[in-house]
Here is the input.
Amino acid sequence: MYLKLLLATLLLAPLNPSHAATPAEEPIPIGSRLELFVDHFLIADMQRTTLKLHEPVKAPRPKSPLPVNHMVTVIKDKDLYRAWYRSSDPSYPGPYHTGHPGETVNYAESRDGHEWTFPKLGLHEINGSRENNVILAKMPPFLTNFMPFLDTRPGVPASEHYKALAGYPGPGDKRGTNTPGRGLFAFVSADGIHWTQKAEAIPFRPQWRHAFDSPNVSFWSEAEQLYVCYFRTWSEPDRLRSISRATSPDFVTWSEPVEMKPNLPGEHLYTNMTQPYFRAPHIYMALPTRFVPGRGEAQDSETDNNSTDILFMTTRAGTEKYDRTFTQAFIRPGLDPAQWRNRANYVAHNVVPTSPQEMSIYHRSGDRYILRTDGFISVNAGAKEGSFTTRPLIFSGKKLVLNFSASAAGSLSVEIQKADGIPIPGFTHRDCEIMVGDKIAGTVEWKGKSALSSLAGQPVRLHFTLQEADLYSLNFHP
Here is the structure.
């Protein structure tokens, strides 16, 4: 029922920030879930306010960072941060190509999400020694894009606590190919270290020119009650690196893939890194690498002068389209010339919490980028007071909690209105206690009271007034 209501309201979402709210709008059932202002989904009208994309800040360089490698996954498993990345056996003589026999998957751990250790697991002899952190080796072509996830599906067998999809079909135009074995194969593990390969899960489609040749990420969707995979395909006829999606109830049988078509004209999206946000799993964040040919510093040949940067996109559970509210770079290459080299800018799969106030993004350079919790995008007002109104909402809970930041002179207030825009007595701006400061979870009060139980279950609008402030998220606490 939740998914049906969500899909119905998605179809009625406003197309632009100046959309004028009307009493006839279908209410959005948000219950007590956290909602981020990463798109215009909740917003009906904006006056002197705008959505603002916040740039991640590079943390101090770790003394022991993750190594400079591709295909990195970072997962917070209880109190332990775990990382998987692609490496290579130094004794492998070549030739070097995507999916070569010398590729390995290595494992690292961290207690604070900043400094990393590399346990000597003794599982594989690499370069004449078992004193290494290699967990998978000599399995071409599956180790070129091995991207694990922690399976949170209720009742999942202990032996399949971790899962992954991996595979590489080989180079070249493969249209018309229907040979088994060129698709993505399932892998399962009890501990994320010892893995068992299963059957081919998502086969290569004969209508595709190429596919799967970058990170192909999957996860259990709490909101959809399905496994979801976002993977590399190429658009036709423009041959742009793009993204498709498939779902599965059991990680065995997968739906027919659907092209998401997120590309702007001429734009290559080299990766997708789509993931459910850890505080609001019905909202999927994506941090794709944008590939720009002919803009970088050549290294090995005159043809590899390509540059890359990181974008920010979102998509909501059950939908087949990405939101591109912002199309500019989220993380730029920066001052380091090395970051302007071919394929230098990728981030690990998953944004993870590293404190109650902070979340982290891991870059293939070994750097860690940080944002405030929920701090991707905000509704922002400058020195002149602004406002915005939500579409009608139906909530459950007893108090309204906001993640906001204001300047010393800034402030924020909330008025609760009926669906037709009429202020509800006792919950007007005049009744609202002005909110100042900077809080991840600030409770709104009206004349010293925060209880909203009398309004739960009926359509209401929230009318916000802001000055020199950012509003990142809201939810109604039970």
About this structure: Residues 1-23 have pLDDT under 50 and may be disordered.
